[in-house]
Structure formats: structure tokens, C-alpha cells
User: What shape does this take?
Amino acid sequence: MIAIRADLLDFTAAPRFGSTDMDGVRWRPDHWLLVGSDGRIVGAQADDPGPGWERHDHQGRLLMPGFIDTHVHCPQLDVLASYGTGLLDWLDTYTFPAERRYADPGIAAQGAARFLDALLAHGTTAAVVFPTVHKVSCEALFAAAEQRGMRLIAGKVLMDRHAPDGLRDDVEQAERDCEDLIQRWHGRGRNAYAVTVRFAVTSTPEQLAMAGALGQRHPGVYMQTHVAENQAEVRWVADLFPQARSYLDVYNQHDLLHERSILAHGIWLDAHDRALLRDTGAQIAFCPTSNLFLGSGLFDWQGAIDTGHRVSVATDVGGGTSLSMLRTLAEAYKVQALRGTKLSAWVALHAATRGAAEALGLGTEIGHLDPGAVADVVLWDWSVGAVAQHRDAVACGAVADVPAQPLHARVFAFMTLGDERNVAATYVAGRPVG
Ligand SMILES: [Zn+2]
Assistant: This one.
């Protein structure tokens, strides 16, 4: 049994979009978070719990639930920050050659370990992940997550056309591989399987039909893919699937949209598409650093709020440029600013914790500090470096003749200036890691 002392911040409900009021925000400065021997949160209190507890004193630090990255590619750490291309060229030039190497079990195992350790070091304790088309790359990821006790959702990538040699599967073999992976890994440790269609371009209609049927045969599994990221891609999908009303409709026609579906990007959607997301319960993983880096476009979060479909936030490394969810949320703010809306720190941090957990159907397990939740939590230094430290001091009222600012101002500055260097400690199921 451990007790962690820090400033506790989490959410009890979704904060209001476009507002900085405290609705839904739970702020407990200088409290002790109590964690039972089963790795679950017991409660929180202001008083020192006494010597019966192993006390971890992080007074003055911020404690939040670990971040949930709902869309990220394990093998793409190799191509992070690659120059000069948009989505389709970027895949051909950088990504596909890097992914081909993951056919080797040794490379896949090393890559999975490097990737998950990096997530934890960035303050991310749960993720929805693409490995590669190779079955071994998916097995390596599940095995590495189980070893670390992490919550992971992943699945072998399906792609049977428009990809180079060494990166294509076929319908029959892919189906056997998926069935085997579901049987062995879905529900083992904290792993869950996701039927993983790379995107509509790289799967034949036969493979999409197989993927939809897989999801229907195994109702607990997730589905992850990409949708409407880039305009050239949208045009290509329209050519390949002339009978579909839209790019999103291709997935709907193949029974791939449901409440465990996670679709990255969703930039080039119309009102009909957004209503379809709402009605099926599927969520969009908004990937701001990727959308900016590849020049894909500006996601319409206000449109999602108006329609009522779910949104989470994701790094999309290696199209995205950082595994840090803080950096990602700071870029999300800027994308929304370009659209003329304002993303509060509350909405952003909720989307990366409780909001994502609930959208994934994991709201009883992760994303908050309620009693009974698994203690996947991260301790953060409020500021790192002279400039951020000064800014934090200003927010706290620690600078002479400057009045203290509301809590949102301090948290917003932390979110905007912080990154993985602010991580002081990461706990998975109540156990310090890294
Ligand atoms: Zn992606």
C-alpha cells in the first residue's frame, strides 16, 4: 500500500467547450493519493495517512491520471521528423521501408520495448497502437505491454493492396492471423485486440468485408483505422469506392463503425459523416502535430461538439512529431485557434484522460482518480527551466506585486510549455516504472 503526496488534478465530467470555468474539474492541492496492494486507488485525503503506508512525498508536484494516446504507430519512431512530404509520399518514401524491417522478430521485439518505454517516459500509460502488417510485430507489442502491466489496444495491420512487397497480406492469411491473435492476446493482461485496417486505400473490398465480419464475430474487440486525413487521399478513396457516399461511408458499408472504433484524423468530413460518427458511437482521434507537420488540415472540434460525436487526442507518431501528449495538446490549442475557437486546458486534459477512457469503454479502469480505478498516474514538475519556472511563479502569485492567477492560467501555461522533461515519475498499476 502506497500513498503519494502531490497536487491532484483530474476530471469528474466533461468540461464545457470554449470555457475555462471549473465545471467537471477536480482539484485537490497537497493531498495524498492512496493506492492499495492490488494497484487500485483507494482514495485521497489531505492528512498524512501515517506510517502504515509507504509514503512517496512529491509535495509541490502535479499528479494526474496517465495520458491515453489513442493513435500512434510503434515502428514509426524510426521515421519521426522526416522532411518534405505530404501523406501519400511520406508513406512511400519513409514509412513503408521502415515498417518492412518489422518482419524480423528481433527487430520487432526491440522496437516494441523501445516504444512502450518511451510512452511511459513521456507520461503516457495507455495507448491504441498500430504495429505493422507482420503478425510478429503485433505479438511483440502485446508481450512487451504485458511485461510492463500496461493497458494496450493493438492489432496486426491489414493491407492487401497499394503497398510494396514485404508489406502486403492476403485475405485468408490475414484472417487466420487475426483469429489467432485474438484468441491468444485479447483480454490477456491488460491487452485488447483491435481489427486494424490501415486505411481504405490499402485494403480490397474483400479484406474490408473480412475485417467487418471479424468484429462482428468478436464483439469485444476494437477497430482502428485512418479516415479523411488529406485531400489527395480522399480523392483516391472516392475513385476506388465509387459506390460509397463518402470516405467514412466505406467503413460503414463494411460494418466497421461502432462504439469501439477509433478513426484517426477525420479532417475532411461533412455534417452527414459527423452524424454517422455520433450515431455509431465511433470516435475521432485528433492528431494535431501530425496534421500540421504533413500539412493535412485543421480538425473541426467545434463541429464535433455541435454534432455530439466523440473526440480524443493522439500523437500519431511518426506523422506526428512528439510522443508528448502535453506538446500534442498545446498544438491542438493552436489548430483550434486557427479555426477561431479556443481549447481550454480543461477540455484538452480531459480529452487525454477521462474523456479518452470513456470513449474507449474503459471509464471504470483508467483516466481518473476515483476509488477503484487502476493507479496509472504520472507525477509532473510544474515547470522546467528558468523561463517556465518564472511563468509558473507568476501564475502562483509568487512574484512581488503580481496577483495570483486562476488555476486555469497555471495549468494552461504548464500544458503549453511542458513536455516529457516535466515527468518526474510514472506509475503503472501503483508501481513506479522507468
Ligand atoms: Zn496514423
About this structure: The chain has a mean pLDDT of 97.
